[in-house]
Design brief:
elongated, GTP Cyclohydrolase I, domain 2, four-stranded antiparallel β-sheet, alpha+beta, 117 residues
Length: 117
């Protein structure tokens, strides 16, 4: 499962001025599951991507000084909440970077497996 280019407006950032200004963040998530879905049309047998999105959205809207902490919290929460997840890769891109003369992207990433929780 891939949730790609999810855009959130949030106040993540270490510095005081970052906590006061909404900035754009882009989240990408890849989930590998340990179960092959059967052919029954029941969400009980799958990872519900709407519920995954809700977890991402709720946590992205809570201010966190460090993106690294945010990544770890999200990965641990997703693995704890969705037992069918075998591993996941989560990236967060900080679109608005307040560094003089900075040109480029800030993207942080984590890959976590269920055995590492």
């Amino acid at each position: 499962m891939h949730l790609k280019d999810l855009v959130f407006q949030a106040t993540h950032g270490y510095y005081e001025h970052e906590a006061k200004i909404l900035k754009e963040f882009v989240v990408n998530l890849t989930i590998e599951t340990s179960k092959i879905p059967d052919r029954k049309d029941h969400l009980d047998n799958l990872i519900d991507y709407e519920q995954v999105y809700i977890v991402l959205r709720e946590r992205m809207l809570q201010h966190t000084p460090l993106i690294e902490t945010l990544l770890l919290d999200l990965a641990d929460t997703l693995l704890a909440r969705f037992q069918l997840i075998r591993s996941l890769t989560l990236t967060i891109e900080k679109k608005d970077v307040f560094i003089n003369h900075f040109q480029g992207q800030i993207i942080l990433s984590i890959t976590k497996e269920r055995s590492n929780v």
